[in-house]
Design a protein that fits this description.
2 domains; Flavocytochrome C3, Chain A, domain 1; 18% strand; four-stranded antiparallel β-sheet; 9 helices; alpha+beta; FAD/NAD(P)-binding domain; four-stranded parallel β-sheet; 365 residues; single chain
């Protein structure tokens, strides 16, 4: 017999868990419907490692202060002004309350990691990363009596005006229909659905590597849109970072991200530089490079650094390709970059440096 629930929460990541915990703390009987198996629960939150937090004085692992206006200015640098200022400032102000709230519910923090570009003042790092974050929330939810169904696939939300009247889902090969008093949709976007990405981005999307969960396919989002629920924003907007080209199609996670860009020269497959790598160290360099690479031929870029820079950033899980000269690197000897125009490659690097590069060279595809 299907239980009766006050609140149904669709999704199993940070937003879903915070909603479920908050409702349960107010006495509600809550059900979480998580598409992923238990071992892969947590959505993209499983791959996070920190969050940015406003604070007027030292707070937890955060040093000094990081005020509302500075936070907002950093946000504007990334969005180019395409930001709802009222909502942005509201979220920024509330972020100061988040860290103690999270600690009270079992989340543990640590000082910023070495090689993270001086984030000790702005970003609070989770001890154990995103997996520990979601595990802490699940433990808290369990203590509060929250039920969780893993590998639960929501089929349909039946709407009655602006309310969800019924929720249909499958779990353990059985179809269920429940009638919660309220439904929270926190099941992520559609970045794991290549066809949907292609409709927004064109053929380039077929080459995208999704470092996050393969379970964010936008099923519930599509169901709501088909029923006339209003959409907001631009479907081409995304949190896109540069990741190692050797990463798997899905679920590579934070360890595939390339943090070496500010210390490098980046070229596309035609050996052409296409952006100022040192324009900004943080936060802009992190947030824009996925989109920049997505606009290059075959969605490929090469990050070239010298040996002196190796200890200045968090490395990718994949080892760099090494060469003893520009010619060796460009010519594809061994696992090199193999540019068709080696002269153009050499010119691009020498022009950028205005000097001969010493030491061995490394390439991250």
């Amino acid at each position: 017999m299907t239980k009766t629930y006050d609140i149904a929460v669709i999704g199993g990541g940070n937003a879903a868990l915070c909603a479920a915990i908050t409702a349960a703390e107010q006495g509600a009987h809550v059900l979480i419907l998580e598409t992923a198996p238990k071992a892969y629960r947590g959505g993209n939150s499983r791959h996070t490692r920190n969050f940015r937090c406003m604070h007027g004085a030292p707070l937890g692992p955060l040093i000094e202060s990081y005020g509302e206006d500075e936070y907002f200015d950093d946000l504007i640098k990334v969005t180019g002004g395409k930001t709802d200022e009222h909502l942005a400032r509201l979220a920024i102000r509330i972020s100061e309350e988040c860290l103690p709230w999270m600690e009270e519910r079992g989340v543990r923090f640590q000082p910023s990691l070495s090689g993270t570009l001086s984030l000790a003042r702005t970003n609070a790092f989770f001890m154990g990363g995103g997996k520990s974050l979601v595990n802490a929330y699940y433990r808290t939810g369990e203590k509060l009596g929250v039920d969780v169904h893993y590998e639960a696939n929501v089929i349909h939300l039946e709407l009655d005006g602006d309310q969800v009247a019924f929720l249909d889902y499958t779990h353990e090969r059985v179809t269920h229909r429940i009638e919660p008093k309220a439904t929270v949709v926190a099941s992520g976007g559609f970045q794991a659905d290549t066809d949907w990405l292609t409709r927004a981005w064109g053929p380039a999307a077929e080459n995208f590597l999704i470092r996050g969960t393969p379970y964010n396919r936008g099923v519930v989002l599509a169901d709501l849109l088909e029923q006339g629920v209003n959409s907001v924003g631009d479907p081409t907007q995304c949190h896109a970072v540069a990741i190692d080209g050797r990463a798997p199609k899905f679920d590579g996670g934070i360890v595939t991200r390339l943090d070496c860009v500010p210390f490098s020269i980046v070229v596309n497959k035609n050996a052409e530089r296409f952006y100022d790598e040192g324009e900004d160290v943080w936060p802009k360099r992190y947030a824009i490079w996925g989109r920049l690479v997505a606009n290059q031929p075959d969605q490929v870029g090469y990050v070239i650094i010298d040996a002196k820079s190796l200890n200045l950033f968090m490395p990718s899980v994949f080892p760099p390709i090494e060469a003893n000269s520009l010619a060796e690197l460009a010519g594809g000897h061994g696992d090199g970059c193999n540019f068709e125009d080696e002269d153009r490659f050499s010119h691009a690097l020498r022009y950028a440096h205005q000097a001969v590069m010493y030491g061995f060279l490394l390439c991250f595809a």
